[in-house]
Amino acid sequence: MSAIRGKLLCWYDEAGRDLPWRHTRDPYAVWVSEVMLQQTRVETVIPYYERFLESFPNARALAEADEDTVLSHWSGLGYYRRARLLHQGVREVVAEYGGEVPEDADARRALPGVGRYTAGAIGSIAFDKEEPVVDGNVTRVLARLLRIKTPIGSSATTNKLWEEAARLVPGERPGDLNQALMELGATVCTPKQPRCESCPVAERCEGLAHGEVEALPVARARK
């Protein structure tokens, strides 16, 4: 795993996209970016993220805003439940933690709208904690890299993915390691026509070695 970590970090330093949320380790800003990026393209999120932080630069500013104002800044991003849960979560941070996003992982996961993935992203990127993340991009990278052949969405696959992500994250720069995995899935290890020739860990990819990259991850059977 250490060799894979090193290759991913070196690749990320050279190939990672220059995105505004990658210039901060403010846990509140990281939180905002991760919520916005759920089910929304990076290019769409960038101007919304920048305007949102101009209007609500910290947790207290967002907590003090009324819901209609928050939703007006979200207009066009869709999935408005995300904005409502973010607003509720930030209000809890202000009420319970004085406006500071808690470092404790369990405390973060207890906040409204913060699941295992978002908590791990905040923990690793903002607090430099060795907490894993598994999203769609990471699922695809790990399923191909480790040749995981059970269907995505099954408990067995979900548990396996989180276990492997947890094995990979310990070490220096856990936040960058997690972002490297996500970046690889978004730009190289794509769902269709992956660019394996540009992959920093291609020589360690079990899916590639067995000629099964396009078949992985295995889709959940439709009922």
Plain-language structure description:
It is a single chain. Helix 2 packs across helix 3, helix 2 runs antiparallel to helix 6 and helix 9 packs across helix 11. With 223 residues, the chain is an all-alpha fold. The termini are far apart. 38% of the residues are buried. It is 58% helix and 0% strand.
Annotation field: number of helices: 12
Distance between the termini: 37 Å
Taking all Cα atoms into account, the compactness measure Rg is: 18 Å
Main beta sheet: strand number and arrangement?
none
Unreliable segments of 5+ consecutive residues: none
What is the average per-residue confidence, as pLDDT, rounded to a whole number? 97
Order of helices and strands: HHHHHHHHHHHH
Shape: globular
Helix content: 55-70%
Percent of residues in beta strands: under 5%
Q: Give the number of DSSP strands.
A: 0
Decide which structural class fits the backbone.
mainly alpha
Topology readout:
Blueprint: H1 2-15, H2 27-37, H3 42-55, H4 59-64, H5 67-74, H6 80-97, H7 105-109, H8 116-127, H9 136-145, H10 155-168, H11 174-187, H12 206-209
Helix pairs in contact: 1-11, 2-3, 2-6, 2-8, 5-6, 8-11, 9-11
Key features of this structure:
0% strand, 223 residues, mainly alpha, 12 helices, single chain
Quick take:
The protein is mostly helical and 223 residues long. It has 12 helices and no strands.
